[in-house]
Design goal:
The protein is mainly α and 189 residues long. It contains 9 helices and 6 strands.
């Protein structure tokens, strides 16, 4: 594979465009409105304005809902492999050089309708089961289970058990799952 030099700002822009391509803003809006934003207490977050200092680490990081979305769209591995090439990531800040070598470019297709379905399901869940706490708990549990997939060989019993756990946690996303099933049947996904 050929190596090329990527600029830090280009990586941030590509990451934000990738998230926008899958409609991440739909999910973020529900969490923010319910008081469960991932960015709460970040010193770079300005109330009613948003992030004041985009960086590599925050762009690369995915909450449990966005991980689940990319997992179901078979894009999570691509996302992770791209960001693993990027040096200097840390919690809510980064030490990434202005330029760095990469072998893989981030290429996320335009699929915003999928996140819209997760957002609808999430809104319904928040209304029915009591707000930000349930949203936070589910987001964290999805995050942990999806991360556990990396511990096991695909196809192994342990891997399949984790996949079942993810399916169980994702039961509230019925509209999303129906849409994904229909798209797979029509071979658009």
């Amino acid at each position: 594979m050929a190596t090329f030099i990527l600029e830090k700002e280009t990586a941030i822009t590509n990451g934000l465009q990738g998230l926008q391509s899958v409609g991440a803003n739909n999910i973020c809006e529900v969490c923010i409105a319910s008081g469960g934003s991932c960015c709460n207490e970040c010193p770079f977050l300005k109330d009613k304005v948003g992030c004041q200092q985009r960086n590599i680490s925050c762009t690369a990081w995915l909450c449990g809902y966005l991980k689940y979305l990319l997992y179901e769209l078979d894009l999570l591995t691509h996302w992770n492999v791209f960001w693993e090439q990027v040096p200097g990531q840390s919690y809510r800040m980064d030490f990434t050089p202005d330029q760095f070598p990469v072998e893989l470019q981030l290429q996320i297709p335009e699929l915003p309708q999928y996140a819209a379905y997760i957002a609808k399901d999430l809104q319904q869940l928040v209304r029915q089961r009591g707000g930000a706490l349930i949203a936070f708990e589910l987001r964290e549990r999805l995050d942990r289970q999806i991360d556990r997939l990396d511990l096991y060989e695909p196809g192994s019993r342990s891997y399949k058990r984790v996949q079942k756990n993810i399916q169980k946690l994702a039961e509230p996303f019925s509209q999303f799952q129906q849409f994904v099933a229909a798209e797979r049947l029509a071979k658009r996904l």
